[in-house]
Write a structure and sequence with these properties.
5 helices, mainly alpha, 0% strand, single chain
Length: 123
């Protein structure tokens, strides 16, 4: 992949992660409406403070992408958030799956961009 294209994608992804992670912590944007069936899920995720862990993973991932330090590691960790977002939307809110698809696509692009760093894992 072209290094300049990768850098632009990396920075855009980093800024999006920082923005949405900070929003989960500081609530400066209203959350989108959720289906009634998912209210139990959201109640549980808020009560157990899991949403704060997700927010911290997103913020740290964004910072590592901006600084380009430990970003390969954080992309592996962020994949768990990406897969969870896709599964949530498939099961409970398929109409709003667009952002989750964008998240997982960008996460996969980043994993591919850092593929040389993962070679030792597979030896």
């Amino acid at each position: 992949m072209n290094s300049k294209v990768f850098m632009v994608i990396r920075i855009i992804f980093a800024l999006a992660l920082l923005f949405f992670g900070a929003n989960k912590l500081f609530h400066f944007m209203d959350p989108p409406p959720s289906p009634e069936e998912s209210m139990g899920y959201w109640t549980a995720i808020m009560a157990t403070k899991t949403i704060k862990v997700v927010a911290l993973v997103e913020i740290v991932s964004g910072l590592t992408l901006l600084l380009n330090k430990y970003a390969a590691l954080m992309m592996i960790i962020l994949m768990s958030v990406s897969v969870n977002a896709i599964l949530y939307h498939i099961a409970m809110d398929p109409d709003a799956i667009g952002m989750a698809v964008g998240l997982i696509i960008l996460n996969i692009v980043m994993l591919y961009g850092y593929k040389d760093k993962y070679k030792e894992l597979f030896n």
